[in-house]
Write a structure and sequence with these properties.
By secondary structure, this protein is an alpha/beta fold. 35% of the residues lie in helices and 20% in strands. It is built from 13 helices and 13 strands. The chain has a nine-stranded mixed beta sheet with strand order 1-3-2-4-9-8-5-6-7, sandwiched between helices. A four-stranded antiparallel beta sheet has the order 10-11-12-13. The longest helix has 19 residues.
Length: 364
């Protein structure tokens, strides 16, 4: 661990003193005795960490496949010092949950994966696009060559620049509006399943559910909807980092706000608990659907994992480098149905295939 990032002691309620989730950190045992997933929880200050764990540790923890590995504070530490910690965690298959006031924690997570020099995707839940209501402009400017797709969730039309979105769509930027997600929140699950970083700006949640926002708004996701997204991220085998940002300076003083952070963290962990350590998924263990007719210029093969009800499509561009890293692309039944029944590519697949096509040919 980077010695400039301080460990934080955790005070537990009596009922959780012997839980498997907290056992490693309480015993000081860091030898990976458990075969499950280790998780670091990183806070910008000791005060926020103390307020968070006061609520979080009172919850029920019946997890058997995920455990708390480290708790850390960034107090009086340059945020860039987090990069080696994130890289070390990735090498050791330890996940990171990062709490923060500003978007710099997401930028630092982005930098950590860029320095690994391998392709990755990022999903950000945020209220706006192309404005000061998100970090997307900075990430799009710096995305090449490793960030392939940046997906924005729960954006609001009054806070988003349509010209910017149109211009950046060809560069790998996708967005899902708040209203569309409210009608069918599961539509974004494939985007989250294929993302290595998942971030939630608390300002994308309505103020009545998120009283610790830095920029309060009466419009936004509900706490329940955001918990569903956190669960999707936890289930995603590719996910390495979960950021919760946009907190106001007095967040630690509001128990209801800490309850929101603790709830989102718990649902993320609940998703991790159900991971299968099978990425990429084995095609032999899934049902195969080979389309007899080409869709546009593509010959497509879909797969369905019957145990999880998740759909995948094989990259139709095997010679391109991105196909070597990620041969299967997360999708859903609607993507399959449009292609099989109407010979139409969904907007999601059309965009992703163009991203695959834009990467160089593989040297193999």
């Amino acid at each position: 661990m980077n010695n400039q990032i301080k460990p934080i002691p955790v005070s537990l309620s009596d009922k959780n003193a012997n839980s498997l989730f907290f056992n490693q950190i309480e015993s000081g045992n860091k030898n990976n005795a458990y075969q499950g997933f280790g998780v670091n929880i990183i806070s910008p200050s000791s005060d926020l960490a103390e307020a968070f764990f006061a609520v979080f540790s009172s919850y029920e923890f019946h997890f058997r496949n995920v455990y708390l590995h480290e708790t850390m504070s960034l107090h009086n530490t340059e945020i860039s010092n987090l990069i080696p910690t994130l890289q070390e965690s990735g090498d050791n298959d330890v996940l990171n949950i990062i709490l923060g006031y500003q978007s710099d924690i997401l930028k630092t997570s982005f930098d950590a994966l860029q320095f690994c020099e391998s392709y990755f995707n990022l999903v950000s839940v945020q209220p706006g696009a192309g404005s000061d209501r998100g970090i997307d402009q900075t990430l799009m400017e710096l995305k090449k060559p490793w960030l392939q797709q940046l997906t924005l969730l729960a954006t609001q039309a009054p806070l988003s620049d349509p010209d910017y979105l149109l211009k950046q769509s060809s560069e790998g930027l996708r967005q899902y509006r708040l209203g569309a997600m409210r009608d069918n929140i599961s539509m974004v699950e494939p985007e989250i399943r294929d993302a290595d970083i998942f971030s939630v700006d608390i300002n994308a949640i309505r103020h009545s559910d998120a009283t610790i926002q830095s920029r309060p708004s009466i419009v936004g996701l509900t706490a329940e909807e955001t918990s569903q997204l956190a669960y999707y991220a936890g289930r995603a085998e590719r996910n390495k980092v979960f950021c919760l940002l946009g907190l106001n300076d007095n967040a630690a003083e509001k128990q209801v706000g800490m309850d929101l952070l603790a709830t989102l963290t718990w649902y993320y962990l609940y998703g991790v608990e159900h991971r299968q350590k099978t990425y990429p998924p084995g095609k032999k263990n899934m049902s195969t659907y080979v389309l007899e007719q080409a869709v546009g210029s593509y010959s497509l093969t879909f797969f369905k994992d019957e145990s999880t009800e998740k759909w995948w499509v094989e990259s139709p561009l095997p010679k391109h480098k991105l196909s070597k890293s990620f041969p299967l692309i997360a999708c859903d039944y609607r993507d399959y149905s449009l292609a099989a029944n109407e010979q139409i590519l969904s907007g999601r697949l059309e965009s992703i295939f163009e991203i695959y096509r834009s990467t160089p040919d593989s040297e193999d």
